[in-house]
Amino acid sequence: MIDKGYINKTAAQSILGRWEARLKLPGLMLLIFTFAFIRDLRLLPFLVLAAALTYSFSGLSLKHLIKRMRMPGFFLVAIALILPFWSGQTILWQLGPLALRLEGLLALLVITVKFFSILILVIALFGTTTLPQMAIALRAIRIPWLITDLLLFTYRYIYQLLSDLNRMRIAARLRGFRANSFNAIKPLAFITGTMLVSSHNQSERVFQAMTLRGYGNTKQPLPIFSPIPADFILLAVYILLSALLILFQFII
From CA 75, how far away is CA 78, in angstroms rounded? Predict the structure, then answer.
C-alpha cells in the first residue's frame, strides 16, 4: 500500500513547507476566513493575487493545482448554470423564459473568485503539510486529541479499505462477476455488507490492541515547539494581510 501521508521533496523544502505547522495552520486559516468574508468586487483581484503568491511559496506545480481543482470545479459549473439565470432583476439578455441577469452574473463572479482563491490556499496548506504535522497543529489550537487521532486513523484505514475492496473486486471478476447488469445488485450488496462487517471487526481488533498497550490512559505530549523568527514573520504577514482586506472591505 502506498503511504499517502507524506509530501514531495520540493514542497517540503519550499517556504510553506518549512513553515512551522502550528503557525502555518492559524495563519492560512485566518486568510481563508477573510476571503470568505469579502463581498466587495474591487477586492477580488487582491484575493487572486494573495492566493497565487501563497501557492508560489508552496513549491507545488501548476499541474498539481489543476488536478486538485478538477473535481470541485464541477460544483462551480452547476452553480454557473443556475445562478445567472435565477438571481436579480436587471435582465441583460433574454430568450423566452430564459433570462440572463446582471446581479446573478456579479454574484457568480464573487463566488468563483472566492471559491478558487480559498481552494488554492487549501491545496497549498495540505500540499505542504503532512497529516501528522496537521494533527499536531490541530492539537496545538486545542482540538481534543481524540479527534486528531480519529483523523489519523480514518485517513490511514481508508486506503486499507480501498485495498481490500480492490482485492474483492478482482476475486469476484475472476469468478465471472460483471457489475454492469441488473443482476449485479445483489452481489454488490453482499460485497458492501462484507466490507462493513470486516471493517468493524478490524476496528475492534485495533482498538483492543491499542488499549492493551495503554492507549488513552496517559496524556499525549506534543513535540517540542521550536519555531524560527521567519515562522513568526510569515504569520505576521498573513495576519496583516487579513486585517488590511477586512479594513478595506469597510472603508472602500
Answer: 5
Domain of 125? 9-139+227-251
Report helix angle 44-56 to 229-251, nearest 10.
170
**CA gap 78, 112 in Å, rounded:** 12
Q: Is residue 53 part of a domain?
A: yes
Domain check: are 112 and 232 in the same one? yes
Query: Which parts of the chain register pLDDT below 50?
Result: 1-4
Closest CA to 3 of 118, 122, 160: 160
In a domain, 1, yes or no: no
Give the position of cell 475492496.
165
Residue 71's pLDDT is 83
The length of the chain is 252
CA angle 136, 51, 104 (to 5 degrees): 120
Instruction: Tell me which residue of 8, 27, 9, 33 sits closest to 246, measured CA to CA.
Output: 33
Question: What pLDDT sits at residue 6?
Answer: 58
In the block, residue with C-alpha cell 505576521: 236
Q: CB 157: neighbour CB atoms within 10 A?
A: 16
Number of domains, the chain: 2
Q: Which of 91, 99, 113, 10 is nearest to 57 (CA)?
A: 10
As beta bridge partners, residue 95 has 98
Q: Look at residue 2 in the predicted model and tell me its pLDDT.
A: 36
